[in-house]
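Q: Predict the assembly, please.
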Amino acid sequence: MPLVKDGKIAADLFVHVFDGAELPGDGAILVPAARFLEDPQALLARAGKLGVIWPNNRDIDDLVPYLDRLAAVALVFPSFRDGRAYSQARLLRERYGFEGELRATGQVLRDQFVFMLRAGFDAFEVKKDSDAAAFAATTKRYSVFYQPTGDGRVTALNRRMQLRHSESAGQ
Amino acid sequence: MYAYDELDRTLINERVSEFRDQVKRRLSGELTEDEFKMLRLQNGVYLQLHAYMFRVAIPYGTLSSKQLRTLAHVARRYDRGYGHFTTRQNIQYNWIKLSELPDALADLAEVGIHAMQTSGNNMRNVTSDQWAGVAPGEIEDPRIWSEILRQHTTLHPEFSFLPRKFKIAITASDHDRAAIKIHDIGLRLYRNAEGETGFEVLVGGGLGRTPFIAKTIKPFVSRRDILSYVEAILRVYNQYGRRDNIYKARIKILVHELGIEKFAAEVEEEWEHIRDSALTLEDSVIEEIRSRFSYPAYDKLPHMPEELKKTAHDPHFEAWRRNSVFTHKVQGYSIVTLSLKPVGGPPGDATADQMDAVADLADKYSFGEIRVGHEQNLVLPHVAKRDLPALWKALDKIGLATPNINLVSDIIACPGLDYCSLANARSIPIAQELTRRFANHETANMIGRLHINISGCINACGHHHVGHIGILGVEKNGEEFYQITIGGRADENAQMGTLIGPAVPYGDVADVIEDIVEAYLALRARPDELFVDTVKRLGVEPFRERVYATR
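A: Predicted assembly structure:
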């Protein structure tokens, strides 16, 4: 499954460590939420970057105390119909100021890329190679955005207001 | 009319190009039908019994003549020469080819029409009063707010994959023509005691399998805060709405299961975080949207022009005028409703030729503007009274002057088993038969206001729960049966109808409805006591007796 990071197909530096599997001595790891919450301090004390895979039906409030020490949070789309992780992503970025890698996992298809970028994701475990290859083209598809989110894109309303100001300044 | 600017146009074109690519990937097999299903639903494309059905949005029910001509063009070029206006200010085409859909969308985009989010589990077309901007006594034009919400909900990055569909309706009048109490969010614009304009926010209304009337979640939300408040409701719903069972996934179930107080508290907590954010609507921003709505330059016209006096002796004209012409906020003008419920016709259907003709009449008599109401009729919102006789003649010629607005044959019906893959029973032939039974205008007029709503299945697209008489098609041992409810209403006093007894077979429905109407005529206290008021006064029992005594 290809990883797209910062807009390009990239090597995944994180190793997924599943429940019960042995921890590697060092290197970046992604662990499931339940395993992380069993002993967060031990995992955070370990050498190497730590990321947590957070399910979409658990309040992110439980993760918030650790955010500044996490290198990555992976949110889950069990199906692309299930949009709960969009809300979690916006809360992590916009309310709790999480600046690490925010990764979309699960059924991630090209038709969700723009929504995901706007919600604050910057890494994508893409289901299909063809979708990963089309990432750059797909995310350039839209140039107009109506909603203000934390991604910094200027909204249509803001562009109109700027236009109004520049028009009235020019008079 | 709202005039799209370059940004609105660009976004619609970008959406068309994205959909064209999605269709291409489906046709090439790169996308599975399951993957494509979600994508086509996001753009109004259903797979029905016979073909793909294509639903196009008419935001807040406002159309220009140019837009209506394009809807006619799509009916002619890509479909079978007609379209069906729905109860949510959309138009549906029933015979569209998948491979031609992108071209149809591109044609529509040229006049600023789209099909974004007309189906799927997202925020649907924001609907409003079809008399917005012309109704006497309105607080202000609710379409400004519908447009603000239309933009905000279009391709929303957080709420495009909700547990289930989500519908918002807005009214700014005391009399609710937008049926806000049966929407996921209903917004009632009003002025509070301090003179500030804002919204009563209702939540959790809806019909379907588990019908609920919406409850007030907040009695007053300032207009500057309305986007952040709606966003807070959506965020709570997106996270906590049920996704385990499609029949329990609407917000009404979440509101019901949590209770309105608990749900309101959750929303309030979320709202506290975002109420002072980029979502706040400053006055300048509201003005920016308002400035793109243009209004007709009305003439100073007499209340009672000569042309009207001269035609008053024609009983057919008078019957139509009394029935289909309504008071406009500007003297000398009228609001005219065009019945899409001819005797024997499928409710809400219009041919391409009719659409073109209405567009021409709108140019001639209504400043080029047309409205579409949830009752599945069209409206010319700005007709000078002196033009009424000429307009009537022209409408009569194209079959759009049936004087049955709000009467027993002004039936709301879903497409039913004739088209829909979800339906258990037919709706259209029931409606057609009823319009024949009540074809006599004098009789219908004597009966007075009576709304019949027909749904071909429990999903309730025909809003049967809130019909004065509701007819619900069900299937029993492979046969079509119909449950009859009475006493429902969809207005500001919205309530669900009550079942009168066991379901009746297809062939009996029209007789049963006639019995109910006859019972009403015998029972009503005065000629002006409406059917729904008689039911309220007496309950369903006398109607039940009448219907089942001989069955």
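Residues 13 and 171 of chain A are 55 Å apart (CA to CA). The longest helix of chain A spans residues 156-169.
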